[in-house]
Amino acid sequence: MMTGQEYKDSLRKRNIKVYIKGKLLKSNEVIDHPFIRGHVNAAALTYDLANDPMYEDLMTVTSHLTGKKINRFTHIHQSVDDLVKKVKMLRMISQKTGTCYQRCVGFDAMNATYSVTYEMDKKLGTNYHERFKEFLLHVQDTDIMVAGAMTDPKGDRSLRPSQQADPDLFVHVVSKDDKGIIIRGAKAHMTGMVNSHEMLIMPTMGMKKEDKDYAVCCAVPVDAPGIIHIFGRQTNDDRKCEGDIDQGNAKYGIVGGECLTVLEDVFVPWNSVFMCGETEFSGALVERFACYHRQNYGGCKGGVSDVVIGASAVMADYSGYSKAGHIKEKINEMIHMAETLYACSIACSAEGKPTASGAYFVDPLLANVSKHNVTKLIYDIDRLAQDIAGGIVATMPSESDLNDPEIGKYIRKYLKGVSSVPAEDRMKIARLIENMTGGTALVESMHGAGSPQAQKVMYSKLSNLEHKKLCALNIAGIGTEEKEDKKVD
Amino acid sequence: MMTGQEYKDSLRKRNIKVYIKGKLLKSNEVIDHPFIRGHVNAAALTYDLANDPMYEDLMTVTSHLTGKKINRFTHIHQSVDDLVKKVKMLRMISQKTGTCYQRCVGFDAMNATYSVTYEMDKKLGTNYHERFKEFLLHVQDTDIMVAGAMTDPKGDRSLRPSQQADPDLFVHVVSKDDKGIIIRGAKAHMTGMVNSHEMLIMPTMGMKKEDKDYAVCCAVPVDAPGIIHIFGRQTNDDRKCEGDIDQGNAKYGIVGGECLTVLEDVFVPWNSVFMCGETEFSGALVERFACYHRQNYGGCKGGVSDVVIGASAVMADYSGYSKAGHIKEKINEMIHMAETLYACSIACSAEGKPTASGAYFVDPLLANVSKHNVTKLIYDIDRLAQDIAGGIVATMPSESDLNDPEIGKYIRKYLKGVSSVPAEDRMKIARLIENMTGGTALVESMHGAGSPQAQKVMYSKLSNLEHKKLCALNIAGIGTEEKEDKKVD
Amino acid sequence: MMTGQEYKDSLRKRNIKVYIKGKLLKSNEVIDHPFIRGHVNAAALTYDLANDPMYEDLMTVTSHLTGKKINRFTHIHQSVDDLVKKVKMLRMISQKTGTCYQRCVGFDAMNATYSVTYEMDKKLGTNYHERFKEFLLHVQDTDIMVAGAMTDPKGDRSLRPSQQADPDLFVHVVSKDDKGIIIRGAKAHMTGMVNSHEMLIMPTMGMKKEDKDYAVCCAVPVDAPGIIHIFGRQTNDDRKCEGDIDQGNAKYGIVGGECLTVLEDVFVPWNSVFMCGETEFSGALVERFACYHRQNYGGCKGGVSDVVIGASAVMADYSGYSKAGHIKEKINEMIHMAETLYACSIACSAEGKPTASGAYFVDPLLANVSKHNVTKLIYDIDRLAQDIAGGIVATMPSESDLNDPEIGKYIRKYLKGVSSVPAEDRMKIARLIENMTGGTALVESMHGAGSPQAQKVMYSKLSNLEHKKLCALNIAGIGTEEKEDKKVD
Amino acid sequence: MMTGQEYKDSLRKRNIKVYIKGKLLKSNEVIDHPFIRGHVNAAALTYDLANDPMYEDLMTVTSHLTGKKINRFTHIHQSVDDLVKKVKMLRMISQKTGTCYQRCVGFDAMNATYSVTYEMDKKLGTNYHERFKEFLLHVQDTDIMVAGAMTDPKGDRSLRPSQQADPDLFVHVVSKDDKGIIIRGAKAHMTGMVNSHEMLIMPTMGMKKEDKDYAVCCAVPVDAPGIIHIFGRQTNDDRKCEGDIDQGNAKYGIVGGECLTVLEDVFVPWNSVFMCGETEFSGALVERFACYHRQNYGGCKGGVSDVVIGASAVMADYSGYSKAGHIKEKINEMIHMAETLYACSIACSAEGKPTASGAYFVDPLLANVSKHNVTKLIYDIDRLAQDIAGGIVATMPSESDLNDPEIGKYIRKYLKGVSSVPAEDRMKIARLIENMTGGTALVESMHGAGSPQAQKVMYSKLSNLEHKKLCALNIAGIGTEEKEDKKVD
Predict the structure, then answer these.
(1) pLDDT tens figures, A111-167
(2) Shortest CB distance from D410 goes to which of A228, A236, A456?
(3) Residue C479: count of CB within 10 angstroms of its CB
(4) Which residues, listed in sequence order, are joined to residue D173 by a DSSP beta bridge?
(5) Cross-referenced SUPFAM superfamilies, in alphabetical order (chains A, B, C, D) (predicted)?
(6) DSSP class of residue A53?
(7) Which residues from chain B sit within 8 angstroms of residue C254, using beta carbons?
(8) d(CA B329, nearest CA chain D) in Å
(9) Phi, psi at residue D218, to the nearest 5°?
(10) Between D54, D251, D347, which is nearest C347 by CB?
């Protein structure tokens, strides 16, 4: 297992092409760019904590392939306990970073690909699962970071991939030979991509036969020829080029550091290809990844909410109103919501079941419920945080003002709350709240792991509405035998 | 294990005093009264299902005391699996009854008393736990139904028990001798009491030293001398004296059939006394019972919601609008909420831990979250059900109109929805929705297992706010060492 | 203007056929039936208050037809002030009745018919408006109560009137001659019908050409040959046959006393026909009525909410927790919602405009907003009322128990809250809250004046979305000239 | 009346001290700073629109002092119509700017001071009202912009002004002589201050006798000696130093451009002092200003919401999902909320009443309701906007990437939605949504015109809870005579 430092060192060796605000970064300095540095620190923590005996139980696990101790982020879940510990691990790390550490995406992509390739091979006689196990062994051995790459740009959302005016709006196979395949397209909103080693590409939705070329799953190094990453803007990203305070979370940044990854005729050798045209399994792969990923949100956002709640409580302490009844009510309400999020993630894990491959899968209905709650409750939690924190979050002078020899004294004088706490500390907490309740953070809670409608439509599919109707008919005494009821559950 | 019929027969043998609307019922006919009959049927189902091989795994379990197969409702939880199965059992039964079957109250009271008496004896050298085990053995052997009896009338809520103008507003010990104790007072909102065999009395809140006489826990037959039960009114209870349709749920009724139980100087022998003046353990007993009971609500109300959702979907089918987009959205939203409730109950169970006695206890924070969500989401689910069902729920003519030779034809003609479904069936579903979304059912979701504020105040107690503050301070870089963070979790 | 007593006397003279629970009532005793009595009392108050000098300004107005002083409920709005005073009148009466007094339905129907017949005549050269003015004069002169009759049973909601298996599921003209027309069908959810003198029948929705026979508007005496009224069940209606307390609101009842009115080949002379086949104006009539009626809901439900809020505050006083912070927060939240409802009704009135006929019409967009808020906020207000009131609302013994010589003492002892208030008063308030927050009352808030979706679909129609898009495009600097913006508003 | 250009020119003549990020700006270039420019443009629009005949009715009015035509922003409301037109004017301007134009603060401050000084003089025999009229005449004649200055830094919120460790945490009089007074302290969150001419200082809350020195109201030029303005940071402020697209709203910016205004021993001549020690009127002044200011929020935020709704609809068009049912539902829901906000502002205006001074005042209860709804519904509207807009809002590459010769082609290719719309336009709309739903904009909706709790506490004061209780008691038939009810209303 790598340490955080080793992880960073390994990233410098890549020959990656990353653009930020129209500038191409030097390959070995990508991780030092102020826009990227924090995300790297957050991901590095997933390495360091795995080497910390205090967190051994959550952060490490024994590989079912090799019997060696590995970082949990490279593991294939072998039990309900693994699923539950994943959630607890995520909450714990979030409490330390206050933001995304990105590594769950590849983790979930690997778990999804593992079981689906197994089932695909069983049904179709293909050989993808063995190939994938080789890839997995490599990941576990080297402890590299894998970016999960699912979301395509999608173009006109009313059209399927093959109907688009531009065929590249979804990643697709443009040619293949006996050595491998050439793919083209782009992946959007790529979390942690610029500080990963490999990406695991998956289709963005269930494909129909006419979209055969779009049913592709494969692993590619992030610095393979033909790949360009264009880093996205985050809320207040320019502040990262200044001092620390105004960033709010100078060490770990905001959310996941997403980029648009362009794949311009990228070659992938066959041993890294795990699906190529098997449209009938594309939906299963998407759904499995989505459920694993939706499982996370009550864990990581639960932890992030803990920080928001803590920061709100500190702000109330610093401002002298922590004893007000309505403040306590609001903090309790925030706790209620954070624990509701967490409970759903625990539940979908506790209700997990083994797949044919032996890998454990979450309860898909409850996993969707878990993420869906995040799309609403995080907004409510953050609204209450802004309520408690006060208008200062939106109008506070800058760190430069604080440090100015002429006017710094006014900042220190007038931004003070209770007299025992320096204004600087109050400013730091206000900036942290600003950082965590703002634009990028909210949007990520909405759309990460799929937009709310993506969860909502799963309910009709995953919940047995016919059984519910039968229950009602039985109780109302309408035309059914009670015995029938026993058959369903 | 008794069957439902044996359970009913056994109830007839009691010498119980029950008043309904100012009339004393004949003791052996109590369970035949239209107001009570449905509740008895619901409770009887907990007996019949235990004898049904299909539900053996959920409904029965091996006693840790005797090794015999027992009805789960008499069991002391020995594992996380027991806690989880309790929730699943509750949801399953609710799907069949659409309402409360009451037996969980005594179940939870016994589990709470079991572990608290153990701890009390350890600390104080008393002998309550052994006494209680004897009582428990009796319950398991005879499969009797035990009513949990916690809530006192409380009088002036701003005063403690010993401060009330009338000392009887909380149940208390009025005298004791070497044979036993005499208690006086009343218990309010007593679910399932009139169709139980024994009641397990507990204090209604943590008592201080000056309220010593009020710290009393004991078992008493429901027909002991000095006990009078006054049955409460439910929404539309008079309809139970008419035909079936207008009741909505003619077989199982509405909620739990609560009564006010008056204890007028009731004698309790020492071997049935499990706490008598040990104020320091009264709070623990209340809290433990409350958490076990709050655990249930995502199970039973999840199942009840399944029926409401199913009934709404049937009503949409019968009325011809089940394909409308907004109807589907609303049904999906109802499913989302029902599963959120369920997930919280599963989570607090999955996170359960053993107590010193070996009995398993739920995660108390998540158990409170579970119930708290019910106090809001059931209202939202029922609102959507009324939205989907239409105004007919509030203005529908009676069953007698349907059956009238003169005007029945108009009912059959004009209350029809889609032409393939008889108006009578549509009426039955409308009445079921009316039954399930109305007054008593809603209020029970609000106040059963404690009012919402009772859950909310637990958050400050059970959630580690100081840790959350520390997380925020660490990330904001304010005056703490990271090392410290590791100490807390 | 009639007094309440004269109103009641006049009702006894009708030869009306009303069925309740399968029994035909004696025509002159209809208003004495316990199920109906309260509704009559509420409607009678609209007569008595008009004779009370204290309320002269709100309750009476000068007829624009005759210059005589009339009851406002028979008036055609002649100004914004009339529209605003209507809302204030409704809130004031609701504060006295705590429930529906039904007379606004005919009031709104007359205002809608007045302006639409005017426009129809202008366009089509018909003579409906003069006919209608004659009818109106009669209503103003005699101060009779008119029931608005819009909602048809509708059958299969996915089919239009003429597509139904049974053509009678919407009221339609079955034949006509030079004397008049014969209509058949039924009207559902008829508020105040059984205690009105006339009904004003309107189509239930905009009709297309193929539904020509269904585009009919006319006035008919409620006791015309061929008419049968079947009274609907309300929550706890049977309690009205017992004592006072358990009714909650013994004087005025619950909501509007709805019935199903069957029209079995009813003859209507031409001078009472105000639309007959003019499908192109059917939609306008429906919409105009709907908007007038939706205007009301922030008025009457604002007043009803005042009573619910007051009752909750009294219950808190009586129980000893009115000083608790969370109780105050909840009451303030209830006030916030009640005033939001009221504000919307005031706003749609203040923004009213004259129609071509001179009658004033509300702002239709804001009128829809007004009703739509009721479909959600009344549920929230009532939920908080049940929260504050406590479980007693759902489990309280009966009035007969209170009056029983044996057990009455226990009721008086144990249902007491603070020692200074008799248990009986606390019971009365609990029953009032039960009455007002229960089934029928909630459902009426949902579906009265149209279900929520009926309001929601109006937003796309009434709100200028294209203008909103243009605003956004201008600010974003996309392809539009600023000058264009000025053209729209 | 000035034009926008004249307004800007006049600002250049000030000798104002403004700091941004630790740098003192050149006095005559303050309005050119990228952080400030947009706010100036927005305020300038209030001048230009007043000169546009199309908006004459909303934007201009006849002065009651001089009979001259003036900009409405300098007017004292003389009728309900004035109050209503204020709201309509605000919504109209917001639809053009998509953000705050700041001028209402001084407008409201002047209206509040006008009527309170009148009442103060009547009661205390002071001469403040005449002084204030002189000031007002000057404002109306010169059409200058006045900043309302109420909020003090407040320090420890659990302490009153005179109890603070530092006496300057609230603005106070440090000395006075026959020429005038010297004041010290600071005003926080000062909207539009750096582009105003004068500020009108008011106390931040009702003062008690011991806080006499803090009860001060006066007018001061923004560039008076001793005044320093420290400009606050806004979300994404640094983007204003780059190109246009990434700003979202390059012309008008975000919210109000707030600053911290330090008053370091500033001299104010007596003729500009309108309160000095009259603590008993400080509360009235605060409340009156607060109500006028809360009135606005349904107007300006209604207009801002129109832009957000329009932008969301455009984004749906551009992405190809504007026909999806759930998208339409969400847009209708947003419209519902925006109109609810607007309705409350219209209602509190329509219910306005004259004060003793003749100036019209809004209904204070409904004005609080208006603002309070904003603190919740704007969050819900913006959440739905982010839902509709998609994750692109949080991860979109920069304008520099779009313009880059190497990678611009990828941006244009992959950020396209429907093929007929250039990616650049879709980016512009996404950035506008990002701008309007982000941090600063949300926080301003929460805390502008007072935090939500400030509104909530007004409900108990302004709503007649005793009357509501009486209504409930009357209906429940508890111990009151109906006659009494008539006395209250």
Answers:
(1) 999 999 999 999 999 999 999 999 999 999 999 999 999 999 999 999 999 999 999
(2) A228
(3) 11
(4) D183
(5) Acyl-CoA dehydrogenase C-terminal domain-like, Acyl-CoA dehydrogenase NM domain-like
(6) G
(7) none
(8) 8
(9) -165, 165
(10) D347
Question: C388 and C327 in contact (C-beta within 8 Å)?
Answer: yes
C329 chain-A contacts, CB cut-off 8 A:
325-326, 329
Helix (H) or strand (E) holding C43: helix C34-48
Q: Which residues of D touch B329 (CB under 8 A)?
A: 325-326, 329
Contact C323 B158 (CB under 8 A): yes
The beta-strand segments (E) located in C125-190 are: 146-149, 172-176, 180-190
**Residue A160 corresponds to which tokens in the numbers above?**
């399927």
Extract the tokens encoding C374.
């009721």
Touching check for B351 and chain A: CB below 8 Å? yes
Q: Do A333 and B463 touch (CB under 8 A)?
A: no
Beta-strand ranges (E) seen in A75-213 are 146-149, 172-176, 180-190, 198-201
Give the separation between CA D141 and CA D155, rounded to whole angstroms: 38
Instruction: State the count of interchain CB pairs (< 8 A) between C and D.
Output: 221
Q: Which domains does chain D have, with CATH numbers?
A: 4-280 (2.40.110.10), 285-469 (1.20.140.10)
A126 annotated to a ligand binding site: no
The answer to whether residue D391 neighbours chain B at the CB level (below 8 Å) is no
In terms of CA atoms, which chain C residue is nearest residue D314?
C469
Please provide residue C327's backbone torsions phi and psi, each rounded to the nearest 5 degrees: -70, -45
Find the residue in D nearest to A403 (Cα). D22
pLDDT per residue, tens digit, chain C (489 aa), is 999 999 999 999 999 999 999 999 999 999 999 999 999 999 999 999 999 999 999 999 999 999 999 999 999 999 999 999 999 999 999 999 999 999 999 999 999 999 999 999 999 999 999 999 999 999 999 999 999 999 999 999 999 999 999 999 999 999 999 999 999 999 999 999 999 999 999 999 999 999 999 999 999 999 999 999 999 999 999 999 999 999 999 999 988 899 999 999 999 999 999 999 999 999 999 999 999 999 999 999 999 999 999 999 999 999 999 999 999 999 999 999 999 999 999 999 999 999 999 999 999 999 999 999 999 999 999 999 999 999 999 999 999 999 999 999 999 999 999 999 999 999 999 999 999 998 888 999 999 999 999 999 999 899 999 999 999 999 999 986 554 544 434
Q: Catalytic residue positions of A?
A: 100, 104, 191, 258, 293, 297, 300, 444
Q: Exposure string (b/e) for A312-348, b if CB count within 10 Å is 16 or more?
A: bbbbbbbbbbbebebbbbbbbbbbbbbbbbbbbbbbb
Query: What is the reported pLDDT for C479?
Result: 82
Q: Do C476 and D248 touch (CB under 8 A)?
A: yes
Pick the closest to residue C315 from C466, C428, C155 (CA basis).
C428
pTM for the model stands at 0.96
Q: For residue B190, what are its two tokens?
A: 């007593």
CB < 8 Å to C311, chain D: 469, 472, 476
**Is C405 an 8 Å CB contact of chain B?**
no
C346, C373, C486: residue with CB nearest D350: C346
Q: Is A2 exposed, middle or buried (0-12, 13-18, 19+ CB in 10 A)?
A: buried
Find chains touching chain D: ≥3 CB pairs under 8 Å: A, B, C
Q: Do A155 and D23 touch (CB under 8 A)?
A: no
